[in-house]
Amino acid sequence: AVIEFIYGFIDLSTIISYISIGVTVMSIGLLIVYFVLLIFKGSWFGEFKDYFDPNFKLSSHFYNYMIIQRVLTGCLIVALYQHSFFLVGPIAILIIESIFILIKKPYKKNKHNYRQLVNNLIACSILGIYVFYGLDSESSTSEVGLYLPFAILGLLTICFVMNAVFVIKTFIKKVKKTVK
């Protein structure tokens, strides 16, 4: 949303600019509504919230934290993209979140905690690759630099497949439970 907003103001002479600004406002508005509904009407999201450990005090609001983390990470990436170490902040946020998940285990089942940790590890790895590119202007033409885009594609594929399998297995279990 932040990128849409910035690009929307670059050239206000085109309709695309106004569409970008509109998409940004709509996205942020929907995100705020979702955030508030998670707090005040959590029962509407009971199935999703059931994944969190009820003994963990923040469990009912853990996804709100995730929304804040993702918006903050996106804003940091956009705001600091011209600096060499612009991704250190988002990487630090993901590392802090991972440590938190390792220690507090906010999900009921460990597989959910591990899945989130693997997602964070993949995200940190990809951001680290971009830091590598930002440090050396010739890194994209070096031997290592030529293969890093394939590493990014591989990591994204692993992430997609892992999460798709997880969602499909969960869906199949729910269907089997409903049929019984």
Walk me through what this model shows.
It is a single chain. The chain is an all-alpha fold and 180 residues long. The chain is globular and about 60 Å long. Helix content is 76%, strand content 0%. The protein is built from seven helices and no strands.
What key phrases describe this protein's structure?
mainly alpha, 180 residues, single chain, 0% strand
Global morphology: globular
β-strand number: 0
Rg from C-alpha positions?
A: 19 Å
H and E order: HHHHHHH
Largest pleated sheet: none
Helix proportion: over 70%
Distance between the termini: 43 Å
Summarize the structure.
76% of the residues lie in helices and 0% in strands. It is an all-alpha fold and 180 residues long.
What is the element layout, followed by pairings?
Blueprint: H1 2-10, H2 15-40, H3 46-49, H4 62-79, H5 88-104, H6 110-135, H7 143-179
Helix pairs in contact: 1-2, 4-5, 5-6, 6-7
